[in-house]
Specification:
The chain is 39% helix and 18% strand. A hairpin with a 6-residue loop joins strand 6 and strand 7 (155-157). The chain contains 10 helices and 13 strands. Strands 2-3-4-12-5-8-9 form a 7-stranded mixed sheet, with helices on both faces. A two-stranded antiparallel ribbon has the order 1-13. It is of the alpha+beta class and 347 residues long. The longest helix has 19 residues, at 89-107. The protein has a domain at 69-181 and 224-277: Malate/L-lactate/L-sulpholactate dehydrogenase, NADPH binding domain (Ribosomal Protein S8, Chain: A, domain 1). Helix 1 (8-21) runs antiparallel to helix 2 (26-41).
Length: 347
């Protein structure tokens, strides 16, 4: 099968039907499918529907709770701890950021730390959730160790993503979403599928020798981006999302693809800052526009993009022309749906 463009509504309906047939509860079906399709629309297919098979396998094995019980605990007026009950990280984090935004409305700042969760996908989704509410958003998460410490050789930390969003006047937020490793784990899988090699300095084996074959990374480890800088930022993410929340730390986080005996034990850190507490929205947007103009002018005759602009361009294209679903993803979803008699939107 070749790549096919599928309308987002049809792809979402298909994803929801698969999840429903596999035993996912309706509340999580809604939040997870919204997340996956948003990722597809903004060009983050590596966090989109291609992840459904592994999530459904974890549901089948009983390590993703359906339904899950969310428990919020007040730690201070603007700080809460959320026990995710072993549910989908997408679902748990959506509720966590909703609560962070509500706290920020009341107190100017809202922070929700999360424990007892699972893989949460693209952090930009939750940061954008805050930006859509007129707030600055942060979303951090730890993950299964596959990255070395600076100066180390064995995996000690996850790719530990860091996401930040700030609203812009046109509604197309500034979006920064980055792994603290040399590249994301999903990018390694993409390189394996396309046959692209890795540049030296991205991964290394147990003796520190560079790995350029993405298929060999699992036997070694990724390196932190920027050496000590990425390492330090990864530790910041681990401390905020796991150490203080009571989530799994380092090897206390289970592999989504290899460990089917237990929940992921991932931790997240979600924060919203109410811009209105600092200055009126029109003033904020004027000042942000001045920043954007200065940055873009630095390119002289070459275009300079702000973080997020490429994502919103992809959103336009995919909303109009349909989401491109690759051959491998179509086959995996079709095989998963076949026993339930579900018809794929590309048939």
């Amino acid at each position: 099968m070749s790549e096919t463009r599928v309308p987002s509504a049809a792809l979402k309906a298909y994803a929801q039907a698969i999840m429903r047939a596999c035993g996912v509860d309706e509340e999580q079906i809604r939040t997870v499918s919204d997340n996956l399709i948003w990722c597809e629309l903004v060009g983050r297919a590596n966090f989109g529907v291609q992840r459904i098979p592994i999530h459904m396998e974890r549901v089948k094995r009983g390590v993703l709770s359906c339904p899950c019980r969310l428990e919020f605990h007040t730690m201070a007026p603007s700080i809460e701890l959320l026990d995710g009950g072993g549910g989908f990280g997408h679902h748990v984090s959506w509720h966590g950021m909703e609560r962070a935004v509500a706290l920020a409305r009341s107190h100017g700042l809202g922070i929700v730390g999360v424990r007892n969760s699972n893989f949460f996908g693209a952090g930009a989704y939750y940061a954008q959730q805050a930006a859509s509410a007129g707030m600055i958003g942060f979303a951090l998460s730890n993950s299964f160790p596959k990255v070395t410490a600076h100066g180390g050789f064995a995996p000690a930390l996850g790719t530990n993503p860091f996401a930040f969003a700030a609203p812009r006047r046109d509604g197309r937020s500034f979006l920064l979403d980055m792994a603290t490793s040399s590249l994301a784990g999903s990018t390694v899988r993409e390189r394996m599928q396309t046959g692209q090699s890795l540049a030296p300095g991205m991964a290394a084996d147990a003796s520190g020798k560079p790995i350029t074959d993405p298929g060999s990374v699992a036997a070694g480890a990724l390196l932190p981006f920027g050496g000590a800088k990425g390492y330090g930022l990864a530790l910041l993410v681990e401390i905020l999302s796991a150490v203080i929340t009571g989530a799994g730390i380092s090897h206390g986080v289970a592999s989504m693809y290899k460990n089917f005996a237990e929940s992921g034990h991932n931790g997240h850190f979600l924060m919203a800052i109410d811009i209105a507490r600092w200055l009126p929205a029109p003033v904020y947007f004027d000042r942000f526009d001045r920043l954007v103009q200065s940055v873009k002018a630095s390119g002289l005759e070459q275009e300079v993009l702000m973080p997020g602009e490429a994502r919103w361009s992809a959103y336009d294209d995919n909303s109009i022309n349909g989401i491109a679903v690759g051959a491998e993803t179509k086959q995996a979803l079709s095989e998963l749906a076949e026993p339930f008699g579900l018809r794929a939107p590309w048939t």
